[in-house]
# Entry
Amino acid sequence: DEGRAAPDPERGATLVSIYAGDHPGLFYRIAGAIHLAGANVIDARIHTTRDGMAIDNLLVQDPFGQPFDEADRMKRLGIAIEDALANRARMVDRLLAKPNARPRADAFAIEPAALIDNRASNRYTVIEVNARDRPALLYALAHALFQAKVMIHSAHIATYGERAVDVFYVADLTGDKIISAARLKTLERLVVDAAAGAPTPRKAA
# Structure
């Protein structure tokens, strides 16, 4: 497993690239590590290869929308990612203890919503989440999906001003679409609660 971070001056951000064996919880740990290092994810592309490797590319900035490229910050980010890949950190406890920086969009009220579609992809259930952008939003959504026992196979994370639009292509742990009506309802509730900032249960560290 390997991860690296490099400044991307053209986009005023830092590009975090991950290549690792995919497994349940990998993406939420990466997103949590980035938040613990003091960075915000502004864009992400993740993909799982047919041989089970996760290729994740995430653009990050500081909480004020500035490049995350100072030497000490880059070092802190690198250590956090290494800890996440090795699963050395008790992510949930550390995130609960970390105060959130004031998000840029406090003045805007955006009601979180989730659209779950089993027709948009032949292989995966597609979940689109619209919510107000805030620190650790991506971690919260990825952790909710982990708790729902689904695997994220691909994702497109984007922000438009104060609004975040996050799209996840997921399957259950056997690789199938989620088709149970009851499970789909639970999945929708979990991601909407996460988008709204509901507290994360402590059981999944």
